[in-house]
UniProtKB/TrEMBL annotation:
<dbReference type="Pfam" id="PF00356">
    <property type="entry name" value="LacI"/>
</dbReference>
<dbReference type="InterPro" id="IPR010982">
    <property type="entry name" value="Lambda_DNA-bd_dom_sf"/>
</dbReference>
<protein>
    <submittedName>
        <fullName>HTH-type transcriptional regulator RafR</fullName>
    </submittedName>
</protein>
<dbReference type="InterPro" id="IPR000843">
    <property type="entry name" value="HTH_LacI"/>
</dbReference>
<dbReference type="InterPro" id="IPR046335">
    <property type="entry name" value="LacI/GalR-like_sensor"/>
</dbReference>
<feature type="region of interest" description="Disordered">
    <location>
        <begin position="1"/>
        <end position="22"/>
    </location>
</feature>
<feature type="domain" description="HTH lacI-type">
    <location>
        <begin position="22"/>
        <end position="76"/>
    </location>
</feature>
<dbReference type="InterPro" id="IPR028082">
    <property type="entry name" value="Peripla_BP_I"/>
</dbReference>
<keyword id="KW-0805">Transcription regulation</keyword>
<dbReference type="GO" id="GO:0003700">
    <property type="term" value="F:DNA-binding transcription factor activity"/>
</dbReference>
<dbReference type="GO" id="GO:0000976">
    <property type="term" value="F:transcription cis-regulatory region binding"/>
</dbReference>
<keyword id="KW-0804">Transcription</keyword>
<dbReference type="Pfam" id="PF13377">
    <property type="entry name" value="Peripla_BP_3"/>
</dbReference>
<keyword id="KW-0238">DNA-binding</keyword>
Amino acid sequence: MSEDELPPVVRGKRGAKPSGKPTLKTIAQMTGLAVTTISRALNNAPELAQETRDRVQKIAAEIGYLPDRAALRLKTGRTNVISLVLEPDEQIYGFGSSLMAGITEALRNTPYHLVITPLFRGVSPMEPIRHIVRNRMADGVIFSKTESFDERIRFLIDNDFPFVSHGRSQYSEPHPSVDFDNEAYAYAATRRLAQKGCKKVSIVLPESALTYAEHLRAGVIRAANEAGIAYEFSTDVNSFSPSDALRNYVGKRARRPDGPDGWICVSEVSALAVLGALNDAGKTVGQDVHVVTKQSSPMFDAFQPSAETVHEDFVDAGFHLGSILLRRISGATDDLTYVAAPRIGWRE
């Protein structure tokens, strides 16, 4: 029997609680395999039989084995950690949890673990990135709210540190990224509102520094010009503004004689504020005015069936973020970008 073939577990040892912290040697004693084979099995080495890997990993889980990350980092320079930087607000409507679900699926059957690094209010977005890189807290990092010329991207490229951004930048150098085609979304939404008879459309854009704000703007302008209708962009507020500020702005515009009769929203949260303001202004959505919004949660339809929606799949985005980052860590340099096309399916 070769070393890579797993013999029966040593009788009387499996299931017995090991004394002290379980190690690779503990598992080796329980299986009769060499420590190097145990290490390869836990790291899913493809040259080992799947049955061997599964059984070793099962025993490791049963006895509570955890790798010594400090020793791993000293030996290999790796931590087997992926860091996802999230702001507290990014948990709204499950954005963060959806990304995490997709990323963890991409990390399934790999030695990597996902760790959340919080970005607190009032703290520069660069702070957690510098901390991760300088202290080698992870093998790669994922972050969102990407700006056109994002200093995080510049810093990570200059330090040759693996990363993938949720959102694109305008740097001439290609870099790993995952995005939703917001220009295509805004174009389709504007065309839809024109089809519904709208004469002027408005969109509450995200913060102007974010790359996708410009993508949305370009889509609205192109479609409105083609359809021969007017358009406007929000002033004084953005899609991340407090709901009260959004409702106040939209309410004032809706009450004016030159107010928009079509609204485009970039998230469910901002859409709820827009719809509430239109209702307060005495407008009937679907008759007096029309609304199109991006949607990521099925809950939205239960509350606002009068708005038309285009789905943005954050679980899918998370999966691509994780997959691309793993490829970047392994040394790949090509095909490290992904842009999801909106799936348009308007109501009859």
